[in-house]
Amino acid sequence: MPEVLEVESYRALAQRLVGERITHGWADAYASKKLPSPSTWARAVKGLTLVGTSRRGKLLILETNGVTLGLRFGMTGVLLIDGEAGIDGLFYGPHEYKAEWVRAGLQFEDGRKLVLHDPRRLARCEIDPELDKLGPDALSLTRREFNEMLVVVRGEGPAIKARLLDQSAVAGVGNLLGDEILFDAGIDPRTPTALLDERQRDRLYRSFTHTMRSLKKRGGSHLGTHMPGRFPGGVCPLDGATMLSSNVGGRTTYWCSAHQH
DNA sequence: AGAAAGCCTCGGCCGC
DNA sequence: TGCGGCCGAGGCTTTC
């Protein structure tokens, strides 16, 4: 679920805890997979005070008076305070809160508890997360950064969908946002990046920023205009043409057979 | 049974 | 030959 919009809402939630001291924390073996051992998180967070929050793409950053804490949410991770999302739209579809799906957490001195809820166990806790390999953040992408994102050194480059999903090119675009941006721009997701002409680049940038703004307003990455056509046999909500789907850039991709080319 | 809104690694291919 | 870039496949993990 979590693409940049969802992680931004988790950040806003965590922001409520700024100024509070962590009495203790824990993370299970899966959430600790990028750490030296399952006890590393508990040892590292004890006694830290949360002094701020930030985010780069889908990586949530908790700034403290000591180490920096990072949270990645995988496909199904959600951040909660005391079992409550606090913000509409954090949960979607069939998902619901279950205590046994809480994989990690931070207990604060004032009694509140921040937890990582993740049925499929692909979320991860990090300490002093590496930012070097992440591109500029999708929510604040400037035209200059966008142009750099499209740079291809040799040949035709990857399919534009694959480039949008490349977190080192731009951080935060996931499968649904990627498809929605290209749907809005009217661009075939398989188009090699270097073959996009000027008009397509202009449209793509406008669709990129527009999609971020409008889906943030609507309340999530899963509320895109193309979503009603996003199933086998679906039709385009804009023009009624057949929606096509195949694997592009390693992910199942949907696009309109008529208005995306 | 197959797919899933993330991410990582591997092996192979291509082009300079 | 070497290296980066890219791609597809596969794995992780559990649920629907």
Describe the structure.
By secondary structure, the protein is α+β, with helices and mostly antiparallel strands. The protein has two domains: 4-127, MutM-like, N-terminal (N-terminal domain of MutM-like DNA repair proteins), CATH 3.20.190.10; 138-256, Helicase, Ruva Protein, domain 3 (Orthogonal Bundle), CATH 1.10.8.50. 24% of the residues lie in helices and 21% in strands. It has helices spanning 4-15, 40-45, 143-149, 160-165, 175-185, 198-218; strands at 22-27, 50-56, 59-64, 69-72, 78-81, 102-108, 113-117, 124-127, 243-248, 251-256. A four-stranded antiparallel β-sheet has the order 1-6-7-5. Strands 2-3-4-8 form a four-stranded antiparallel β-sheet. A hairpin with a 2-residue loop joins strand 9 and strand 10. Helix 5 (175-185) packs across helix 6 (198-218). The longest helix is centred in the C-terminal third of the chain and has 21 residues, at 198-218. The radius of gyration is 19 Å and the shape is elongated. The structure holds a DNA duplex (16 and 16 nucleotides).
